[in-house]
Write a structure and sequence with these properties.
Largest sheet: none
Structural class: mainly alpha
Number of helices: 12
Number of strands: 0
Organism: Frigidibacter albus
InterPro entries: Isoprenoid_synthase_dom_sf (IPR008949), Squ/phyt_synthse (IPR002060)
Radius of gyration: 17 Å
Pfam family, one: SQS_PSY
Protein name: Squalene/phytoene synthase family protein
Length: 258
Amino acid sequence: MSLHACAALVETGDPDRFLAAMAAPPAARARLWPLYALNLELARAPWASAEPLVAEMRLQWWVDTLDRIAAGERPRTHEVAGPLADLIAETGQPVAPLQAIAEARRLDCWGEPFAGTDDLLAYLGDTAGNLMLAAGQALGAPEAAHTALQDAGLATGIANWLVAVPDLIARGRAPLPDPGPEAIAALARTGLASLTRARNARSALPAAAIPALYPAWQTGALLSRAAADPGQITQTPLRLSEFSRRGRLLLTAATGRI
């Protein structure tokens, strides 16, 4: 039950977010690891079984654990739940954004397609948006910065979702309400607009909270590529070159700009 265990989970299961956290100062990393490890656990839970009810039971364990942490109780020994409870006790941040992520993941247990783009955006806001909000809160972001964090999180969620589309299709899911190129380009432009709002409001974040934005280091480039060439999204994973990825991360860590 340690931060090292949380970091190891993220390194294996969410390497891009691991790199983003490693670009942050050590004190920030210590607060980000439990959140990123929790996010990974919540994302994995719906895939624990092909039976939706069984998968939802695993997710329910996390829902119940978060409820206990919110009530001030110490959860059972667990490599993620323990450090997470310590983080919440230390920062006093609300558990509600994390609970919202867990509840949103119930949709993944059943694998039903999204009825429309608004439903997909709501899901990505509840998951990726709330994760970036919780990260910012852990690093001391004031309430005035919450909208910027959620906007950056939504944009990053859209980008990551478009990256994952071919894999989700291969797993038998229908990740896009409308898989046509025009609809995909429109979704990417929605992400770019959300990212622009976050960039314009970045000054609301204190310097200590800027690392919460680091996972958005690729977001603008990925969304721009998707908007320009949407026809490939369902067939070929959306990627940047390794040189571009590393360079953008270094720039983000040096300037705080996403």
